[in-house]
From TrEMBL:
Record keywords: Signal
Protein name: Uncharacterized protein
Highest taxon in the source lineage: Eukaryota
Organism of derivation: Cylindrobasidium torrendii FP15055 ss-10
Record's signal peptide: 1-16
Amino acid sequence: MRFFIAFTSLISIVLALPNPAARAEIDPNTCTALAKNVGNYHYQNFGGCNAMIRDCVSTFKAEGNATHNPWGSNSCVAAATCWGAGSLRDYLQCQDSTFDPSSAPTLDYTNVYAPIVGDCAWQEGGCPITFQNYVDFIYRTTSDLGSSGYPSSTETLRNYYWSYVINWTTSGETVPYTNFNDFLFYSRT
Ligand SMILES: *[C@@H]1O[C@H](CO)[C@@H](O)[C@H](O)[C@H]1NC(C)=O
Ligand SMILES: *[C@@H]1O[C@H](CO)[C@@H](O)[C@H](O)[C@H]1NC(C)=O
């Protein structure tokens, strides 16, 4: 955990430096490879994930170039867990090369995080995301998008999706807001 904090602080420091090269242009080959693998995550996929990515991209494009806020969208946040946050960040950069993922607004607490965890979001100190919260979020988002492409089972979600989130955040069986936000910004799982 100490390593994790030091590591993310280091990233923040590096990103804070006025280095114009920090926002690398996305490699066109990366974009081609991603376009062929939309929604495929360690040999897993489900239709709802593709629907999330499609909706995320169309919201992203509709925002124009100046105001991108992927982590204010349920679709983008859900997609980051079912395709990998690194793939999704890169793919969004492929749509708009001026987008700098490290400068995106942090995860929207009111409109995205609180609906995931429920009323305890507003208790002092908030509360972390449980596996059951995650399952509900993925099913709700799939349904909201009018997709019938649900994951094959909740155990699939646990073993092939949630497992990457909790192993990366190293916060135990549940994931607090800050750790989940870090997952969205920095993980490549
Ligand atoms: C957004 O940026 C891309 C290049 O990254 C450009 O092709 C596109 O025209 C821009 N869109 C708007 C609405 O400015
Ligand atoms: C997460 O860590 C557990 C315990 O080490 C391991 O069994 C599991 O396979 C890991 N999951 C992934 C997706 O790497």
